[in-house]
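Predict the 3D structure for this chain.
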Amino acid sequence: MRSGRWARLKPMARGFFITFEGLDGSGKTTQWKRLETWLTDAGHRVVTLRNPGSTLLGDRIRGILLDSQSEHTLGPIAPLAELALMFADRAQSIAEVIRPTLARGEVVLCDRYTDSSEAYQGGGRQLGAERVLALHAAVCDNLQPDLTILLLPDLAESLARARVRNTEHLEASGTDENRFEREGDAFYQRIHAAYEAIAAREPQRVAVIRGGGLDEVERQVREIVARRMAEA
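Done. Predicted structure below.
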């Protein structure tokens, strides 16, 4: 899947910021990595990162927020504290990675960004989109991606894959990032609805892919990215 007409992208005169969004188990991390390979093969300089994580501070925050054992040692994490930590991570990644990369005219691929906070904390934790967007404006200086790829396959299948993946990750590495996956179906239904609302509100930025095998989704991602980068 690395060759073909979509690989012939024009050189970028400036940086381009792409985010991947979706429920855990939606396949976004796989597609994020495949797109990195394709863009690199096409001659682009690409920097990848994930939210939370990818800085020294961000990796510490990731350990607190995703590890299912965190609340055994720290006590319950309040929804607003969770939201604030997500934005602390994001502010650091913008200052340390995203803005410098864009200033060099390179491509940024980010696994999750503010849409995740609007979906998980705004929707799932029921804090509301307005509070999240206000924090984005204040903490991130309203820095928006040029393109967001939103993967929204079947909800039940996504959750099943996420839980299997995290169990395998725990067995292989001893690191448990299953804190969110322990939540019930209603939590994820609210997240799914929040993602749908984001896509409806910002159709120029957000491209939704609802299903298909890995190669078919990859083909769609490439087509979308090639078109949007050509228009930039």
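The radius of gyration is 17 Å.
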